[in-house]
Design goal:
Shape: globular
Bound molecules: flavin-adenine dinucleotide
Strand content: 25-35%
CATH topology of the largest domain: Rossmann fold
Number of domains: 3
Number of strands: 30
Oligomer: single chain
Distance between the termini: 47 Å
Helix content: 25-40%
Length: 618
């Protein structure tokens, strides 16, 4: 953890947003697939804990104040209490039955109205996302509604007068950026030690007078809640996964033979088998349709240097466009005519003009940040009124899409794992609660939007080059957030697309990584890791899988040297088949697996890898 360098020159009014969420490990779903709320343990979202902790340091260093703002039912006042017990000066609890059924945009609107009512604030700190819904949409939507700059995933911060120097964590990318106050920031996991007061008796002792309840009427006429939400939740299905749970016995060679037999039976050795619970392409064509001409537009936001994800999105958009008799428009910095063979019928390349052009030599984003791209896409959408807009669910895609949705009042489904067109409308499958449930989300707005997870949609073969019309849209960058450098230390798509993944925990010593990598290559597996492993920098942060890392759905997941704590396993729950290797028979990973070896991973791999190599090759 790093210590923020704080050199303020005046007292700052800091506001930290804190959401109350259920404790995952205690969560239960009723027979209707809905969350059982009775007796549910609720607490402050883990990322918001970072915002409160950072806010307190900044408030103290500047001689200013830290207030905490939460929107939620009466029970949500406990997050204000915990933050005040931790050192915050005041709590604002926006609570009213009128807010029931708020989606992310309605939540952002209510928070924006609260900030305007209670403010001004110099700095607004949010969590990167809430770990229950995992959209990451509210912070950028709030920034957009307040007309403020936004920086996502702050991992390191230096405050110098009015200027913030930030290190931002975006998927597999690191950005150094500068911004001036006032600003909205979202906090990454390892920014700072979290605000946490474990003993509820201490929060209970907090003077209730320091928490101010705010009603909907105080914020204005609305509409609020469900009435202000452009998305609606349709049928919900729970992800029931039939795990074999077979603990292997006998000699290791015999165990490895048995493991192969079980995996074969489960289809884990065949490339045709998919993940356990996702239904990504409901109705989407596996092959690219012919080029579309006219009709409604389906927009696709093109993030630079994410080719495979781009191809998946364009393929899905082409399939949706064919269903509605429309066409596909690709928009983004660096977008070009080559996108025609992946499904684009028209391309708008977004280019920085004016004095801000080319600020960082070699920047793949051409000197444009998310806010600039959102301006172009928002104007285009207002003009063209597209049927829908798809974006990657990366940090970039989530911010651009969130800002566009806020400007258009459009429904936005975050991190969809499936898309379909039903009765002419977009249905996006959204996993929630760590993938325990998948909800079909529809939009009531004319323009329908979704960010889509990498590696879940079909990747159609390219079609004959279709020569799309390419035009340039020039935008003058606002340069409120200035990216000074951008580096990648990994390729997040590699993990997202891997059929076979080996999950590595602290039980694998780093001196054995070379051997592990050689074994992984033999079976074409990608590596991912537990948080403890990425905490000690043994693997890049983008390899972390779990509640505060990625969710993956490979055909085969082989867990070695990891205990299988809930916070990790929830991220691999929808894998097709799971093999667990751990010398501790009581390790929780064995409750999640199809076959389990109670042994040292190296001895198991001596037997298993050659067999898998042969079986996966056929
Ligand atoms: C808010 C929060 C968020 C979190 N988010 C995440 C997340 O996103 N992802 C995540 O992974 N964790 C997350 N964690 C941490 C998580 O709870 C666990 O602490 C972590 O996953 C454990 O890592 P591990 O299994 O590598 O280590 P350990 O729990 O230390 O387990 C190591 C295992 O290795 C086994 N082992 C030892 N030697 C061998 C050998 N030779 N062969 C095979 N096995 C061996 C041991 O028996 C042991 O079971 C989070 C925690 C919190 C509080």
């Amino acid at each position: 953890m790093n210590i923020p360098r704080l050199e303020p020159t005046r007292p700052l009014r800091v506001l930290a947003l804190a959401k109350q969420i259920p404790v995952f490990a205690d969560m239960q779903l009723g027979p209707d697939g809905r969350l059982v709320r009775d007796g549910l343990v609720l607490h402050m979202n883990d990322y918001c804990r970072r915002g409160v902790a950072l806010g307190l340091q900044i408030a103290r260093a500047s001689g200013g104040t830290l207030s905490v703002l939460t929107l939620g039912p009466p029970s949500a006042d406990t997050v204000c209490r915990e933050a005040i017990a931790f050192g915050a000066d005041a709590g604002f609890h926006v609570t009213d039955p009128a807010f029931a059924g708020s989606d992310t945009l309605a939540t952002a609107r209510a928070l924006a109205a609260s900030v305007e009512y209670l403010g001004p604030f110099d700095l607004i700190l949010a969590g990167r996302n809430s770990v229950d819904a995992d959209t990451g949409q509210v912070p950028p939507q709030l920034a957009d509604l307040l007309e403020l700059p936004f920086a996502c995933g702050v991992r390191r911060l230096r405050l110098s007068g009015e200027r913030l120097l930030l290190l931002l964590e975006h998927n597999d990318e690191w950005l150094n950026a500068e911004v001036e106050l006032p600003v909205v920031l979202s906090c990454a996991e390892r920014l700072i030690d979290p605000c946490k007061i474990k003993d509820p008796a201490i929060w209970a002792g907090v003077d209730g007078a320091r928490i101010r309840a705010i009603s909907a009427a105080e914020l204005g006429p609305g509409p609020w809640g469900a009435a202000a939400s452009p998305t609606s939740v349709g049928p919900i299905r729970t992800l029931e996964i039939d795990r074999r749970g077979e603990m292997l016995a006998g000699g290791l060679a015999e165990q490895a033979d048995r493991a192969i037999a079980v995996l074969d039976e489960r289809g884990a050795l065949s490339a045709a088998a998919g993940a356990a619970g996702l239904a990504p392409g409901r109705g989407l064509a596996a092959e690219l349709p012919a080029a579309g001409r006219g009709g409604p537009a389906v927009g696709v936001l093109i993030e630079p240097a994410r080719e495979r994800h781009t191809r998946e999105l364009l393929g899905a958009a082409a399939s949706l466009a064919a269903t509605i008799g429309g066409h596909v428009v690709a928009l983004g910095p660096g977008a070009g005519g080559e996108l025609g063979s992946f499904g684009a019928d028209a391309v708008h390349r977004i280019i920085a003009g004016g004095t801000g052009a080319g600020a960082v030599p070699g920047d793949s984003h051409g000197g444009l940040v998310e806010e600039d791209v959102a301006t172009v896409v928002g104007d285009w959408a207002r003009d063209v009124q597209p049927w829908g807009i798809l974006a990657p669910s990366t940090a970039w895609g989530r911010e651009v899409a969130s800002r566009v949705a806020a400007r258009l009042g459009a429904g936005l489904t975050g991190d969809a794992v499936g898309l379909a067109c039903e009765a002419g409308r977009l249905i996006a499958d959204k996993p929630a609660f760590g993938g325990y449930v998948v909800a079909a989300i529809a939009c009531s707005s004319a323009i329908q939007m979704a960010t889509v997870r990498s590696g879940v949609l079909p990747l159609p073969e390219p079609r004959e080059a279709a020569d799309p019309a390419v035009s340039e849209i020039i935008v003058t960058p606002r340069r409120r957030l200035r990216v000074v450098s951008r580096t990648r230390d990994d390729d997040a798509d590699q993990l997202a697309h891997a059929d076979v993944v080996i999950g590595v925990g602290m039980g694998v010593h780093t001196t054995h990584y070379e051997r592990l990598r050689a074994d992984a290559r033999k079976i074409g597996a990608a590596l991912c890791a537990t948080r403890k492993v990425t905490d000690v920098n043994a693997m890049p942060r983008a390899r972390q899988v779990g509640i505060t890392g990625h969710t993956i759905s490979p055909r085969l997941y082989i867990a070695i040297g990891l205990s299988g704590k809930f916070n990790h396993t929830v991220g691999v729950r929808s894998s097709g088949s799971i093999v667990a290797v751990n010398p501790d028979r009581d390790a929780p990973i064995f409750d999640w697996c199809d076959v389990g070896f109670v042994a040292d991973w190296r001895e198991v791999f001596d037997e298993l890898i050659p067999r898998l190599e042969g079986a996966l090759a056929t």
